[in-house]
UniProtKB/TrEMBL annotation:
The keyword Hydrolase applies. Keywords: Hydrolase, Membrane, Transmembrane, Transmembrane helix. SMART domains: acidPPc. GO terms for biological process: phospholipid dephosphorylation; phospholipid metabolic process. The keyword RNA-binding does not apply. Belongs to the PA-phosphatase related phosphoesterase family. It is found in: Membrane. This is Phosphatidic acid phosphatase type 2/haloperoxidase domain-containing protein. PANTHER family: LIPID PHOSPHATE PHOSPHATASE (PTHR10165), PHOSPHATIDIC ACID PHOSPHATASE TYPE 2_HALOPEROXIDASE DOMAIN-CONTAINING PROTEIN (PTHR10165:SF202). Its main location: membrane. The chain crosses the membrane at residues 49-69, 89-111, 123-140, 189-205, 217-235. Residues 123-260 form the Phosphatidic acid phosphatase type 2/haloperoxidase domain. SUPFAM superfamilies: Acid phosphatase/Vanadium-dependent haloperoxidase (SSF48317).
Amino acid sequence: MGWKNVISFCPAPNFRNMFQLRPNEHMLECRHTIKSHGGQLMKNHKHDWLILILLVIIEVILNIIHPFYRFVGKDMMIDLKYPMKENTVPIWSVPLYAVLLPIAIFVLYYLRRKDIYDLHNSILGLLFAVLITAVLTDSIKDGVGRPRPDFFWRCFPDGREEYDNWGNVVCHGKDSDIREGHKSFPSGHTSWSFAGLGFLALYLSGKIKCFDRRGHVAKLCVLFLPILAACLVGVSRVDDYWHHWQDVFAGGLLVFPAPYDTEGWGPYAYFRAVEESRTSAQPSIVEDINNQQQQYRGNNVDSTFDAMESGIR
């Protein structure tokens, strides 16, 4: 009975509260915020931001110049008579979900963790991914000049066909419609969507630890939501008769390979987890190799390291 009274006066410690990470004043002072580290971080990456501005200028020029006007004969018009339709996904909405939506998620994460380095590098990586993809897409568009599926009605809005002596079309439609009609390959909507939303998917996979091998399928569902949205945008381009299916397929591939393993097809984190599992599954082999090396060296381990330090091989 005496021991019970002693124990009642000495309650068990609360280990949950003991090991719970609580931000103290020192930790709050060490947080990397926009006010404390933002200016210096921008200064250190000024060349990166200058390259981004250069990419924006190149992208504007690529949208101003005329594309290559490819030869389009009468026989080719058979596959180019689809009706002209409005965009299901307006062009003004593409930067909203491909750029501003990921940035909004980055900002929410920053408000929670106060890590300006994560915010800055995430925005910088996103803008590089989208702008490089955009420059590649529009460069190929202007160089190839493939007609869109609705090119017939862009070229002949009244339905009266006209061809020159060589059999090439003589369009009498609006100049803006004709110019836009030669920008089918590859799909810009699709490439922008996969660049922005694909980057967001990789960002989320790292933050929620999709490849931690704990079997949480819900994490993979969150990861695939941006990819699914990008796929649906590509499907809408075919349904609107603005692109052939090959254009959409090529636009989706322009952003790959991303931060992937050099010898694999998936994200680096996945292959790192696989490599760690293989290493842990063969401890006996590693131990045998270490034992054999130790036996071979014998008692001359110190002399071997001394020779290596002195440059003897």
